[in-house]
């Protein structure tokens, strides 16, 4: 009776067997038919490369024809893995970014049909507007006799440098849900829409709401909104209505997500969704879905944990740089806080930051993925052949909490490694890191991050024991 251990190659599986008694005096290698020598295996295995053969940034962005080819006749996106891989390899072309993000950020399930998405779109419309109408109505009713600005239902910014006035929303019409266009639709469909609206009213009415928390959130939001991406065309200019939409979404989210509420930085995250989707309803739901995955980053414990992961990863990959940062009293990596919280938004131009955001959000290259396990299998095979069949290798456990964004952080630090090593104290390090904004080559950083990622995967493959002849 034998315990069988296998490693994969791009050809057939080669199986190592040993007795269950763990008797080290007995060991043999069974070679499948058609693979007669270690030399033959060496010829078949991929050659080692310094960087991945299909490195991120080396592929064209996902374009419209490719995206449409992933849909079946009913509109289902049947190969989620292929989509995420394409996004990771080259980002998304602006012509299809809106459609791609609607799947990636949870507005629609990947396997939903085009017809099902029409129904979901109506549900999203009614639910969002019912939620928004509810907090507006409650703010008005709880602050009778006060001005619109005092109620928090509207806001007016009179700063000379921020000439913005957000529309007033206190009339009866705004407390109702905007009607959907029912032109040229059947009576049956109209009845279905009316039913969806009733369901949305019930849904919104059942959500708990704390007026004290809402007013607190409104005060902070009204400080952040007029300073959000004002240099971008979408938010530029006096009286820009998109700022009003941004405000409404943020307050609606804060009102009905009391666990996380509103925190500074959420406006910067939401602005991306609003620019790409150009829809108040779609932006709200995609933003809400994304926030569910990162909400702990806006809590002290969650961000401290993520910074500690950056710290651990840097220590594993670059001990010299890690020790230098420790000696300068910045080993806690707090200078990475903004990078991680905003998805590197301030470190690159807006369009490049969008691309990095969608690449990271594709979650294609993660340490728990099949692609990573394939790399480790190949590395085990290489090490076995390199030793002429005299060593058996097994994989050390990977820390799957090391997400790709953490490798991007390490890549950015190693990109200015010598500058950081030349710094004499923490103040100089913070100044050096702060000066990175807008000065980095995104393609270079991404290639470096992936190379470091792959190196970590290979580094985790260790010698286990010697085969005794």
From TrEMBL:
Residue ranges occupied by any Rab-GAP TBC domain in the UniProt entry: 91-364
GO molecular function, one term: GTPase activator activity
Signal sequence region: none
Entry-linked SUPFAM superfamilies: Ypt/Rab-GAP domain of gyp1p
Transmembrane among keywords: no
Keywords on record: GTPase activation
One family name in Pfam for this protein: RabGAP-TBC
PANTHER family linked to this entry: SI:DKEY-238D18.4, TBC1 DOMAIN FAMILY MEMBER GTPASE-ACTIVATING PROTEIN
Protein name: TBC1 domain family member 17-like
Species this protein is from: Branchiostoma belcheri
